[in-house]
Design the sequence.
């Protein structure tokens, strides 16, 4: 009998051991395993060094201050020569107009637009000014470029200004008393 009892005991131990080992897998079902997929991040590509093409830039003549000084001294000398005497009531305007020239671009009501136009002209190297000197919203403000002693130079600048601002403008005699 002990032999028979031992066989049963060994059989029960084997079945319990198999149950302990494999029963949890059978009860949970098939586990889904997530495999992490790694992708390789590419290295930083080697960039070719590129250079922008060199452009030929026009040299802007900064002798504007000297020309203004010449125009003012020329106008002052004309004023001294042609001062009205007691018999004359007004100074001759023809002598003032021949000393310097200015390009009048137009008259504008919007002070913000006038200021932006003058800034754009000055950034491009043009000597721009307004009358009155401080634009007031709702009042007409005249925008000028110049003055310049040479009328021919203003004619050349007129085409450049027209391309920049789409304003043709009109060349007028510069009156220093007005500014």
Sequence:
């Amino acid at each position: 009998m002990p032999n028979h009892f031992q066989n049963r005991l060994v059989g029960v131990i084997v079945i319990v051991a198999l149950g302990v080992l494999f029963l949890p897998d059978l009860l949970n079902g098939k586990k889904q395993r997530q495999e992490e997929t790694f992708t390789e991040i590419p290295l930083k590509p080697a960039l070719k060094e590129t250079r922008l093409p060199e452009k030929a830039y026009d040299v802007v003549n900064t002798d504007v201050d000297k020309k203004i000084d010449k125009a003012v001294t020329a106008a002052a000398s004309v004023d001294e020569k042609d001062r009205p005497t007691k018999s004359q009531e007004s100074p001759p305007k023809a002598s003032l107009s021949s000393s310097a020239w200015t390009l009048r671009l137009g008259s504008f009501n919007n002070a913000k637009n006038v200021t932006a136009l003058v800034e754009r002209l000055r950034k491009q190297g043009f000597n721009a000014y307004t009358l009155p000197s401080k634009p007031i919203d709702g009042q007409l403000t005249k925008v000028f470029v110049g003055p310049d002693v040479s009328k021919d130079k203003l004619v050349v600048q007129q085409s450049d200004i027209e391309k920049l601002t789409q304003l043709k403008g009109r060349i007028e005699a510069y009156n220093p008393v007005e500014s």
In short: Residues 1 and 7 are 10 Å apart (CA to CA). Residues 94-173 form a domain with the Alpha-Beta Plaits fold (CATH 3.30.70.1070). The first strand starts at residue 101 and ends at 108. DSSP finds five helices and four strands in the chain.
